[in-house]
C-alpha cells in the first residue's frame, strides 16, 4: 500500500504523515536495531511549494540554526565532524564518533564518487533540459551494504539513497528517495536539506522551483523517544507562515555567496571568537535570503556563548517571518541559556 501526504507546504504534508504514523491502523509495530517503532511502509510526501520548507508543527520545534548549518555543510561538500557537532551535540550519538562522518551527504554528492555530482547535474540539465538521466547518488553499495552477518558497517549509513531531477515546464522537479526516515528526528530536517538543494539548483539553471516529492520506504517513530511516548507531539497550525526569501542565484553568484556564508559559519564555531569579530560577521555582504539564514545561525552561536544582546541583535535583523517563527518555536521549549 502506498501512503501519500500532499500539501502546499512541508508542514502541511508532514502533519498528515504524523497523523498516520501515530494513530492510524496502517502503522504497525516494528523492531529495529535502535528500538521498537511504529512504522508505515512506502510513504510519499508531496510538497507543492518547497520554499515553504519549515515544519513548524513539531513540538518541540526543530532547531533552525542546526538545519541551516547542516544544509550549508552539505552544499559545501563537507564531512567534518567538528563543524556539525558544534550545532548539534547529539550528532555523534546517532552517527558515531570520529573526525569525519562516513555517510555525510555533502561529501557523497560532491566528492565520494570521484566527481562533483551537483556540477555534473548542472552541466547536463543546462545542455539537455529534457534529460531523464540525472540522478544524484548518495548510498554506495561498496561503502554502505551491511556485513554478511547483517551488522551495519558504520553507525552513519546514509538514509537518503538518491535524488531524481527533472525539468518540466520551466520548473525543476525533485524526487528524494530514502530507505528509512524518522518522522520526528529526520523528516523535518531532510525537507530543509533537499528543498534547499532543489532551490539552489533551480537558481543555477534559471528555473522556477517545481514540486518536491519525498519517498520513504520506512517512515517511522520510535516508541521510546518519539511521539508514541510523548517526548514529541504535533501541534497543527491554523495557517501557514510563508517563507518569502529566495536563495536561487545564478551559479557564479551562488559560489561566491557559499564561500562567504561558509566562512562566517566556520568563524562562529571558533571558541575564541571575539565579540567585535562576531559583530563584523553580521555585516557580511550577501543577498537577503542568505543573510537571513546566516542571522539565525549567528543568533544560536551567540546564545551558546551567553551573549544575549548579540543574540537578540541578530534576530532583530532577520526579515524572514518563517525563520523567526521557527526560532521562536524551538526556543519556546527551553530556558534562554539551556
Topology (elements, then pairings):
Elements: E1 3-7, H1 10-23, E2 28-30, E3 37-47, E4 58-59, H2 64-75, H3 81-87, H4 91-95, H5 105-112, H6 117-127, E5 135-137, H7 141-144, E6 160-168, E7 171-178, E8 181-182, H8 187-205, E9 208-222, E10 233-234, H9 251-269, H10 275-281, H11 288-304, H12 308-317, H13 321-331
Parallel strand pairs: 1-3, 7-9, 8-9
Antiparallel strand pairs: 2-3, 3-9, 4-10, 5-6, 6-7
Descriptive report:
This protein is an alpha/beta fold. It folds into two domains: 3-234, Thymidylate Synthase, Chain A (2-Layer Sandwich), CATH 3.30.572.10; 251-336. Helices cover 43% and strands 18% of the residues. Strands 1, 2, 3, 5, 6, 7, 8 and 9 form an eight-stranded mixed beta sheet that branches. It has a two-stranded antiparallel sheet with strand order 4-10. Strand 2 and strand 3 form a beta hairpin. The radius of gyration is 19 Å and the shape is globular. It starts with a strand and ends in a 7-residue tail after the last helix. The model has no long low-confidence stretch (mean pLDDT 94).
User: Which stretches are low in confidence, meaning pLDDT under 50 for 5 or more residues running?
Assistant: none
Query: Helical stretch count?
Result: 13
Helix % is: 40-55%
Q: β content, as a range? A: 15-25%
What is the straight-line distance between the termini? 43 Å
CATH architecture of the largest domain: 2-Layer Sandwich
Global outline? globular
CATH topology of the largest domain: Thymidylate Synthase, Chain A
CATH homology superfamily name of the largest domain: Thymidylate synthase/dCMP hydroxymethylase domain
Strand/helix succession: EHEEEHHHHHEHEEEHEEHHHHH
Mean pLDDT reading: 94
Describe the sheet with the most strands: 8 strands, mixed
Beta strand count: 10
Number of domains: 2
The secondary structure category is alpha/beta
Task: Report the radius of gyration as a whole number of Å.
Answer: 19 Å
Q: Give the CATH class of the largest domain.
A: Alpha Beta
Amino acid at each position: 500500500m502506498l501512503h501519500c501526504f500532499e500539501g502546499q507546504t512541508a508542514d502541511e504534508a508532514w502533519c498528515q504523515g504524523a497523523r498516520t504514523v501515530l494513530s492510524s491502523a496502517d502503522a504497525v509495530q516494528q523492531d529495529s536495531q535502535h528500538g521498537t517503532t511504529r512504522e508505515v511502509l512506502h510513504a510519499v510526501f508531496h510538497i507543492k511549494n518547497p520554499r515553504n520548507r519549515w515544519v513548524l508543527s513539531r513540538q518541540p520545534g526543530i532547531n533552525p540554526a542546526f538545519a541551516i548549518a547542516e544544509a550549508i555543510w552539505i552544499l559545501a561538500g563537507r564531512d567534518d565532524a567538528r563543524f556539525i557537532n558544534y550545532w548539534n551535540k547529539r550528532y555523534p550519538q546517532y552517527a558515531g564518533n570520529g573526525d569525519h562522518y562516513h555517510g555525510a551527504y555533502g561529501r557523497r554528492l560532491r566528492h565520494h564518487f570521484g566527481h562533483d555530482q551537483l556540477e555534473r547535474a548542472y552541466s547536463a540539465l543546462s545542455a539537455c533540459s529534457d534529460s531523464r538521466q540525472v540522478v544524484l547518488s548518495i548510498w554506495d553499495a561498496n561503502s554502505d551494504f551491511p556485513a554478511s552477518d547483517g551488522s551495519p558497517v558504520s553507525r552513519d549509513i546514509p538514509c537518503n539513497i538518491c535524488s531524481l531531477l527533472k525539468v518540466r515546464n520551466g520548473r525543476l522537479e525533485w524526487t528524494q528517495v530514502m530507505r528509512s526516515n524518522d518522522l520526528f528526528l529526520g523528516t523535518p530536517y531532510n525537507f530543509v536539506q533537499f528543498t534547499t538543494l532543489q532551490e539552489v539548483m533551480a537558481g543555477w539553471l534559471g528555473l522556477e522551483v517545481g514540486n518536491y516529492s519525498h519517498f520513504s520506504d520506512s517512515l517511522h517513530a520510535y516508541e521510546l523517544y518519539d511521539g508514541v511516548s510523548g517526548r514529541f507531539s504535533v501541534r497543527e497550525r491554523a495557517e501557514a507562515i510563508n517563507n518569502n526569501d529566495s536563495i536561487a542565484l545564478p551559479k557564479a553568484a551562488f559560489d561566491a555567496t557559499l564561500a562567504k556564508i561558509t566562512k562566517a559559519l566556520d568563524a562562529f564555531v571558533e571558541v575564541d571568537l571575539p565579540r567585535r569579530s562576531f559583530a563584523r560577521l553580521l555585516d557580511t555582504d550577501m543577498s537577503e535570503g542568505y543573510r537571513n539564514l546566516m542571522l539565525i545561525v549567528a543568533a544560536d552561536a551567540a546564545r551558546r556563548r551567553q551573549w544575549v544582546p548579540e543574540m537578540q541583535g541578530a534576530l532583530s535583523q532577520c526579515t524572514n517571518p518563517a525563520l523567526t517563527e521557527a526560532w521562536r518555536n524551538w526556543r519556546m521549549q527551553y530556558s534562554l541559556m539551556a
